[in-house]
Task: structure prediction
Amino acid sequence: MTKTEDAASCTADGWEEVFDRNRVVPPPSQTVRQVLESHFNTSRGFQFSLHRVTAAQLPQEISTQEQNGPFQLRVTLFDRNHQYFFGKTWKSSPQRMENNKISFNEVLYFHTSLLLPSTLLVIELVSLSPMPDGSHQAVGRGFTVLELFTSRPEAPTLEGDRRLNLHHGSPRTLLHPLLKDTSEYGRFLQIIDGANLSCAVKNHPALLPVMNLLPENVLVSGCEDIPGLAASPTGDALLRPQLLKMLPFTLNRLTISLQPSLEKFESQLLQLINADCQNTKQAGPEGTHKAVIIQERRLHVGVHNGWCFLDKPQVVVLEPLASGLRGRADGTSKRGTRPNSSAASPLPQMLGLRSSLELKLAEHKDLAIIFQLEYVFSAPIGRETMLSATSTSRAAFLQSLRWGSWCPFQEPADWRQSELQLVLRGGARPNPHAVMVYSTEASAKSPSPASAPAPGSAQELSGEEDVISFWLTSSVEVKASSPKPSLRTKQEEAPHQRRSPATPSRGSSRALPSSPPESPQGPGLSLSQLAATSRYPTISHSSSALPWQQSFPSLLHPSPLASAHQLSHVAVSSIAHLEMDLSREDESRLIQDEGEQLQELPFTPVHAPVITPGTNVPCSGSVSSRSSLAHLFSAGFPDIVDSSGQAAEVLDPAQHLLFDPKREEADPHRGNLLVFQFLAFTRIPAPGAGPDWPDNIYLTFQFYRFPPVTSQQLKLLKSEKVQHKAGEPLPCVLASHNKDGTINSGSPGLQVQFRVDDSFLKPGEKRFFLRYLARHTMHIDIWDSDSLLLIGSTAIQLEHMLRQGKSAVQALHEVDVLTTDYVGADTLLTGVDVDRRSAGSPMTVHTIVRGRLHVRTGNVGCPVDPGRRGRPADVLPSHSHIITPSEINSGFRGGNLFSRNILHPYARNNAPPDRLARDDTVVPEECNQIGDEEVRRKLSRLALVQEREGGEATKSVIKDALQAHELHQFKACDERSKAEAIGNMLIQAMTTHHLLYASLGCAQYLEFVLRNPLNVPQTVTIHSDNPELSVITTTEEWRYFKALAKTPTPLEENLFYSEDGAPGPKVYLRPNERVHIPLKYQSFVCDHAMSLQGPSFLPTGRGSQVAKKNLSNTIAAKSIKVTFTGENGKPMAICQVNVEPTPHVVDQTFRLYHPELCFLKKAIRLPPWHNPAEETRNARTSLSVRCSDPNVICQTRMLVPGEPQDVYLKVPGSPSPHIKMFFVMVFTDEWMAAPSQIWQIYVHFLERVDVSCVTGQRSRQSVILRGRQAVRKVKCFSSHPEEIEVDPAGVFVLPPAAVQELQLRVQPWQAGSRFLYVNAVDVEQRRLVTAWLLCLNVHRPVLSKAFEVCVPVGRGRGSSRKITYTNPYTSGRTFLLRSDHPDLLQFREDKFQIGGGETYTIGLRFAPSQSPGSAEILVYVNNTEEKTEETFCVKVSYV
Result:
C-alpha cells in the first residue's frame, strides 16, 4: 500500500509550483457573454513577435546608469470597453540597449475567442535596477497599445508588421475615466519622440492541436515548460507543437472516507445549512419538508498540467458503502439471496464508486490527477424566491467539499500494484476548479505540503484526515499481461471490450475485477443524474444565480463551477448517429497507441429505413372491413365533383396507372384543381401508450413547390353507436376545431386544395409537373397536437391524380403510418446468455405501425381562363438561353440627365423646359451643403441687422444676393455632377437585362453575345460580382450544357485563358467580332426559415396565390452583373441577370433526433446506380451531393463498383428544442446540371438524459426545466405514458427565469437500449418549450424461480394456475404484482397484503391463443415503491 500524508506531498516542488505560477485573471463576464451570443466563440491561435525597441531620444529622467542597465518588455491583454486587464502578464528576458536600440526578438503565442475590436495588447517597457537583496526594481519607461481585431467578419485579425509609438506614463493610464468609452487614445496620450516598438502579429493555426494544454488569453513563449507538450530541438516548442503520447489508465476501487465518520460529517454539514436557512428564511408549516437534504454526491476527476485541465473533468456519482463492500469494484450485489431476519444492515462508512474511470496520462512529472468532492443539495423554495409552488417546489445547488491532487510521475514509485491513499484538503486555498471549498476545524489544521512525507513512506496516517483510496493501473499493461481467460470469461468480456477495450481484463489475478462498461469522458452530470454506470454520461451542469444563494453561512457558498460548465455537452462518439457502431473507433484508438499503422476498413453505417418511392411505400389499398368503411363514409364528407357537378371517376390505388404524356398534353382542361381530403385516422395499440392515444393530431406536408402546409388541430371522433369486433380498430373521423375551441362537427375531415394552371406554371413547366405526379410520392408527417410528439410518417403515391383526359378523378388511400424504433441488445445483470449478443451493430432498427391514415385525393379539370391564353405553360420559348444585346437599347430625350430620360429606346427626343428658367427655382439639398458657408453666414447677419433698422430697400438687395448665391451653387453642383450622370447613362445604355427563373441546385445555362465595337483587336476580361454566376471555361462542360439546352450556336475550343491575379477569364476578340460567352448560374444556398413546431391556427392555402405570396425555402431574389472590360479598363458591355426565386420540389423528407450541442454524424445508404447508356464494364454513374447549409458537411464516397453508395452528413449541434432544417441535393450527372433528388432533412435537438434501470422496477430521474422571458402554462408529455410518468403530471405555471425540477419515474418492460422522448409543451400557445431524449439502458432482472405451463390452443378459453410466495420479512408488507405481457397474463389480484413469514397464493389467468407457440412471461413481485422483490419466469407453451 502506498500512503501519502497530504494531497500535495509529491507536488510541492512540481505541479503546485506550476499551478501557483500560472494563475490567470478571467476576462470580463460581459465580454464573454457578448461572444457567446454572437455564436463566434471558437478560439483561434495567434503568434506575436517582438523585434526591437528604438529609442533615439531617451526621456530626461533616465540616468546614465539606468541606460546601461537591462530593459524588459511586459505584455498584458486589456479590454477597452470595460477598462479591465485580464489574463497573465508576460515578461521578456532582460536586454541591454545598444546604439539606442534594444533587441528582444521574442515570440509569444496565445489563443483567444474574444475576437473583438475592444481586445487590446498593452506592451510596457521597464528598466530593471538591482536592489540590495538581489532582486530588481522595475520602473516604467513607456508603453504602447496594439489593436488585434477588427469588426469585419471576413478579416477579423489585423495581421502584419507593426511599428508602434511609445507613450509617456504607465499602463495604469488606461484606467483613467477620461479614456472610458473612447477608442482614440492618441488624443489623451503623449508620444515619446523617436521611441517606437517593432512587432508583428499573425494567425497561428498550428496552435489548434495543443489548445487543451493552455488556457485562453494567456501569453506564453515557446521556451516555457508546458506539461504535455513535447520539447523541440529548436527551443520553440509552440512553433510546430507536438503532443506527448497519451497512455490510457484505469481508476478502480475508488472510495472516500470522511472524518469522524460519513454519517457525522454529513449530519454536521446539514445542521449548519439548515440552521442558517432558519435564520434567513421564514419558517413554513411543512416542518421537515422545508429542510435542506443531500440529493447527490459527486466526484470530479480530471488531469491538470498546472495551467489548465487537459480535458473537461469527468463527473461520477458516489454511493454510500459499508466497510465490507469496499473491495468490490463492480458494486453488484447478490440479488439471489435475501435476509431471513430483520437484522439491520451496517451503516455506510464511506463513499464509493461502483464503476471504473478511464484517464489519459502522459509521462510528465508535472501532470496531476485532480479530485474534487462535490455535493448536490436540495433546498426548499421559499416565498421570497417568487417561483412556482408546485408539488416539487425544491431546487438544487452545488457545493465543493474537498479536493486533492496527485502526480503519478513525480518520483518513481511502485503504485501500479498497490492501493493509493490520498489526503483531501478543504478551506480557502487556491484550487484548479476555482471554487470555494467547505472548511471544518479539522481540515483547517491539516498539515502543510512541505511537512508531508514522500510517497511510499511507511508512516501511518493519523486517522483524522479525509482520505481517498483508489487503484491506478495501465490499461495497456493489464491487457498485455493478462493470462488466457476461460471460454466463459471471453463471453463475458466480449461485449465489454467492444465498448471500451481499455478496461482491465477479468482474467488477471493481480488486477482488479472488471467493472461495468466504460463511458466516454464527459464534462458533467445533470442534477440528480443517478446513472453512474450509464454508457454515455453526457449531461451538463445547470446552475445560475438563484435567489437563495445569498442565505448560506460563510463556510458554505454555492460553487461557481456550475456556471462555468453550463450547457457543456459532449458527443456520444466521434462517428455516429444514435444507431452507429462505436467498436471500430475504440479498437483503432488502442492499436494506434501501440504504434502500429492503421489500415482503413470499409465502413458500413446503420441508418433508419426511409420511405423511398417504389420501395417501402406504405400500402395504399383498402384494408378496413366493409363495416368500418360504411361507418367512415356515413360521416358526410364533401364529394369531389367536376366542373359540371358530376362525381369524379373513382380509381383503384392498388392498380398501377399507365402514364401517357400526349394524352395529358391534349387535355382540353388545361387547369388542375388538386384536392386532398384527410378523412380519418385508425389507432393501432402501441406498447407503452394508452388505447385512446392519440386524441388530437395535426399534419405537415408539402406538395410540389407550394409552401409547406401545417394543418390545424384535428380531433379524433369515435362513434359509440357502431358495433364492431374487439380486435378490429375502428377509424376515427377527423374533425377540425373552431376558433373558440369547440369541435366543428358540421364539416368532418380536412380538405386542402392546390390550383395548378398556366398562370401558376412557368413556360415549359407543365411537362415537369406531370412527371412529378407520375413518379413522385408526397411525404406526410402525423403529429400529436397535445404533446407535439411525432406519431409517424407516411407517403402517398400521386400517380392517381393524373386525369388522362378525364374531367375529374379521385382515389381513396388507406396508408400505414410508420415510425422507427432503435432497440439494442439485452443487457443482463449476470453472465447468462451473454453469447446471444450480436457481434455486429449494437442497435437494431424496427419499423412500427402506429396507425392508418385515410386520405382521398382528387384532380378536377378546370377550363382555361380566356384572359390568360397568351402564355401556355407547355411551350418553351425558343433561344431563351441566348442573350443578344440590342443595337439601340437606350435613348436620351434631351434636357436634364434624369433617370426618367434613360432606357427608353424609342422615346421622343424632346423634354419639358428646364426648371432653371422658372422663378420657383428648387436647389438640390446636396448643392446647398456645398456652398460657401462663410458667405451665407455674413449675408444672414447683414440681413438681420438691416431688418432691425427697417430698411426695405436693403432687404430686397440682400434677398437678391442670397438668390444669386444659391443659383451659383446650383450651377457649380450641376457642372460637377454632369460627368457622373453621363457616365451612368452610358453604363445603363450598354447594360443588357435578362430575367432568370432559378430554383435550388438547378443550373441555368446562358450565352451572352459579346461584340467588339472597335476596329482594333481587344482582350476582354470577364468579371462577375457573384460567384453563383460564373463563366464556363471547360470545353466538355460547355458542350454538355449546349446539348442540354439545345442551342444552335457554335462551340469554340480553348476560347478562354486566365492569368494570375486577374478578376476573371479573358477572351481575345478580333475587330467587330462576335463571340458567344457561356455562363452558368447555380445556387446551393436557400432560406431555411421554418414555422414553429405545433398545429396551425391559420387557414391553409387553397390555390396558387398562396404559393406566390409565401415563397418558402427558396433562393433569394438578386441582381448579378457580369462586366466585360476592355484593355483600357473601361466596360465594353454589361449583362445584368435578374434572378427570380422559384420554390423547389422535395423528393424525400427525413426527421432525425439527436442530443443537443453535439455533432450529428449520419450515413444514408443509396442503392447502386446503373447507367445503361454506358457500355464499358467499369462505367458507373457519377454521384455527387451538395447541401444548402454551408455549416453542414455533406459528402459521398464510392466504395467498390457495384456496391451501394453512402451519403455522409455532419451537422453541428444546437440547443434544445431547436430544429435545424436543410436540403441535400443528389446529382447523378458529371456536371451537376440538375439534382435528381432533393432531400429535406429535419434534425431535432433534445436534451440527453441517460438512465440505467431494470425491467419491471421503477427508477427515478430528475431533469431541470428553465423558464424563459414570459410566464407559461406548461404540461409534460412522454412518448410512452405507460412506462414514463412525469411529476408534476398536470399543468403548472413556469414563471420567467425560474428553475423547475421535474421527476421522471421510469418503469420499462422491455430489456435493451431504447430511446424515449419527453416534451414540455406550452398548453396555451401549443408550442414546444423543451424536449428530452431519454437513453435507457435496461437490464433484465435476476430470476428467482422458473415455471412452465401448457395452455391448450383453440378452445376459446384460457388456463388458470397458482404459485406461492412467502414474505421474507418479519413484519407485514404490501406487494404489487406486475407482468411484462399483460395481454397474455392477468392476476387474480394485482395487490395483496401478507404478514411476516406468511405464504400467499398468487392466482394466474392465461389468455387463450388460436395458434401454437411459446412465450416467456416475467412476473414481478414489487413493493409499494415499485422496487422488485422477486422475479419469476413462466414459460407458456400453447399446444
Q: What stands out?
A: The chain is about 10% helix and 35% strand. The first strand starts at residue 2 and ends at 3. The CA atoms of residues 1223 and 1240 lie 5 Å apart. The two ends are 63 Å apart (CA to CA).
